[in-house]
Amino acid sequence: MNPRRRSPVPIILPCVVFLAFAIIPVYGDVSIPTNTNVYFEQNGSAYNGSVQFAVNCYGYRVYPGTTSAVPDNSTANSPEIVFSYAASCPGYGCVIYEPYYLNYRHIDRCDLSGVADNRSFSIPGFSDTPLPNCTSIRPFGMSRGNDEYYNTTPEYDSCMNETYEESDRCDQYLAECNPAKDTDCGNWIINGRTVKDTQNSRSCRDAADKNRTACDTYLKKVDPSSMVMYRDNRTRQMMPAERICEQHFTIPEPGAGNGTLTAQGPDSPHKSPVESLYCNILSLFGARC
Predict the structure, then answer these.
(1) DSSP letter, residue 158
(2) Rounded to 10 degrees, what is the CA torsion of 72, 76, 79, 85?
(3) 213/262 Cα distance (integer angstroms)
């Protein structure tokens, strides 16, 4: 099959993600490479200026094996930030590389705080999840590493099935054995019989494995340049995106009820909005300005 392509989105600028605050997934968890196109608007129009922003989501953690869905202490009384990320958009429409790893978290609400035109603003409770509207994409069927991506074909599937059937037929060369008397006899049981490998069974399976490798000729290689690529913010490694999202935020006007927008002059004794936002981000990790 042909790799799925995403329709181009106009005016998408690169976006710098400062950091992401999340628990490292335990073994077996999968973090989905996700590209999010972020748009800031104001007064019903695109906001073309630079925006620095942070998203903090509050709730509680749900650890594997626990049966209680709600902790003893209500998050309303003791809110905890369980997910957070921060980024900078240089203009209207930017891409952030945030996988939204939300396993083991219950989220009650998400707040946004930001700085635009040297003014700080906030949008409290903009959602009960940081995950925006998303579409799953899977431009390849398998990866062999080293930027090698492939899609299967009907010929490949048929070839592989034939080699599996060939391997199954090798069972006829197995020898029945007694584990109590034969040190080469293990716990391999087929149809109630304890069996062991023989030279013929091994040779038969080796031939099937060789034929299975030959099936690769039916794979269709996918050119990485044809795919939407995701950048891992921790390792800086590039890989195909598997999810495309779109997020819109409206910057509130000064004094608007759904948020706050305040400016500080150069003679203000307080930190500038940018400094305050940066300090807030550092505080998530226990650091101080």
Answers:
(1) H
(2) 120
(3) 64
Instruction: Give the C-alpha distances (Å, rounded to integers) separating 19 from 98, 112, 231, 252, 281.
Output: 9, 15, 13, 25, 9
Q: Round to whole Å and give the CA distance between 245 and 12.
A: 13
H helix runs in the chain, sequence order = 154-169, 199-214, 273-283
Q: How big is the chain by its Cα radius of gyration, in Å? A: 27
Indicate if the pLDDT at residue 14 is higher than 80: no
C-beta of residue 94 within 8 angstroms of C-beta of residue 116 = no
Q: Which residues are CB-neighbours of 44 under 8 A, at least 6 positions away?
A: none
Q: Given a cut of 70, is residue 263 above it in pLDDT?
A: no
| Separation CA 115–CA 289 (nearest Å) | 18
The tens digit of pLDDT for each residue in 96-131 reads 999 999 998 999 999 999 999 889 999 999 999 999
Contact, 229 vs 238, CB < 8 A?
yes
**Per-residue pLDDT tens digits for 167-224:** 999 999 999 999 988 988 988 999 899 999 999 999 999 999 999 999 999 999 998 8
pTM of this prediction? 0.65
Query: Which residue is associated with the tokens 């006007």?
Result: 253
Helices (H) and strands (E) counted in the chain, each on its own, are 3, 20
Residue 233 has what pLDDT? 83
Give the separation between CA 105 and CA 141, rounded to whole angstroms.
30
DSSP character at residue 8? P
Cβ-contact 262, 254 below 8 angstroms: yes
